[in-house]
């Protein structure tokens, strides 16, 4: 287990992404994945109110509802760290105080719980003063409905400003950052955001840790066999640089007898302040390719090989 920033949360180093629950993984398949994850020692699940509104026939809230049903069926709420988010769903948009309060109540109801362990601002809302947003989050923390708060999709300047507001006003502060970060998407996070996370002891929980499936090694030049919902976006990485990254991953995976996906996640886990990359699995076979990363630290030479291939 790893401590999440300066919080009191101890989490498994691979966070299970819940974006597929109620979408590419139906209720029964989602239960199978969750059961297998917990059996392997996992305790950290990431979802959002907007999941899976983007799927045909869905309206949003499906992922939280499936997760909530599983928690009730297994009676294990006190052993699972639940992260969910507010601010991106068009039915509950933005980070105004009223919306945050209402969205939290909706999420608690769907999850069937009295508290959220980690509650994210899903994306920045520049139309709402940070003071209003953070006061609303602070109210939830003080009431016990939320244990800790976090930020996703914030620029470094806005995140630094939010931390300063919390300090000045005595509000609960963001304890974690969820950026878009992986072997083929490095520029946005590395540099100013990474430096801020380190200075402020923010846990870093990268999303799209496997680049929409590209870093599983499933997508190769000339292979158009997969018709998964993410296939087209994953194949967008099949340029010269992407092929070099796959070659480096294949090399290390073969030498270490590890799944390619686990090597990609282990690279993230070797970066400063990265506590638990977020990766989803729509079946137990996919999950089994992720879990070895939790116990597979890369050598300096392996990290350098991947750094060079993805530069």
From TrEMBL:
CDD domains, alphabetized: AKR_AKR9C1 (cd19081)
Keywords: Oxidoreductase
Alphabetical list of Pfam families matching this protein: Aldo_ket_red (PF00248)
Domain NADP-dependent oxidoreductase: 13-310
EC number assigned by the record: 1.1.1.91
Annotated GO MF terms: aryl-alcohol dehydrogenase (NADP+) activity
InterPro entries per record: AKR_Detox_Biosynth, NAD(P)_OxRdtase_dom_sf, NADP_OxRdtase_dom
SUPFAM superfamilies: NAD(P)-linked oxidoreductase
Gene3D superfamilies given in the database record: NADP-dependent oxidoreductase domain
Entry's Gene Ontology cellular component terms: cytosol
Protein name: Oxidoreductase, aldo/keto reductase family
Lineage: Bacteria, Bacillati, Actinomycetota, Actinomycetes, Pseudonocardiales
Gene name, Swiss-Prot/TrEMBL: mocA
């Amino acid at each position: 287990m790893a401590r999440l920033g300066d919080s009191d949360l101890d989490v498994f180093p691979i966070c299970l992404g819940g974006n597929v629950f109620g979408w590419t993984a139906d209720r029964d398949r989602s239960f199978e994945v969750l059961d297998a994850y917990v059996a392997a020692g996992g305790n950290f699940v990431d979802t959002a109110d907007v999941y899976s509104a983007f799927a045909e026939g869905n309206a949003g809230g499906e992922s939280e509802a499936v997760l909530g049903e599983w928690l009730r069926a297994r009676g294990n709420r006190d052993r699972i760290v639940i992260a969910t988010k507010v601010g991106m769903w068009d039915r509950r948009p933005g980070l105004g105080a009223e919306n945050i309060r209402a969205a939290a109540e909706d999420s608690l109801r769907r999850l069937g719980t009295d508290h959220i362990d980690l509650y994210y601002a899903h994306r920045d809302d520049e139309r709402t003063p940070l003071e209003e947003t953070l006061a609303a989050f602070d109210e939830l923390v003080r009431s016990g409905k939320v244990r800790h708060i976090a930020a996703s999709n914030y620029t470094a300047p806005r995140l630094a400003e939010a931390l300063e507001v919390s300090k000045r006003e005595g509000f609960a502060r963001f304890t974690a950052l969820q950026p878009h970060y992986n072997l083929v998407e490095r520029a946005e996070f590395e540099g100013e955001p990474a430096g801020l996370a380190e200075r402020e002891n923010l846990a870093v929980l990268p999303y799209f840790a496997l680049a929409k499936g590209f870093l599983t090694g499933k997508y190769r030049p000339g292979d158009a066999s997969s018709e998964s919902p993410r296939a087209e976006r994953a194949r967008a990485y099949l340029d010269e640089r992407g092929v070099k990254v796959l070659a480096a991953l294949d090399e290390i995976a073969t030498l270490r007898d590890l799944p390619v996906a686990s090597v990609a996640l282990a690279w993230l886990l070797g970066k400063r302040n990265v506590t638990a990359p977020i990766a989803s699995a729509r079946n137990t076979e996919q999950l089994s390719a992720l879990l070895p990363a939790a116990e597979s630290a890369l050598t300096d030479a392996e990290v350098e090989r991947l750094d060079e291939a993805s530069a």
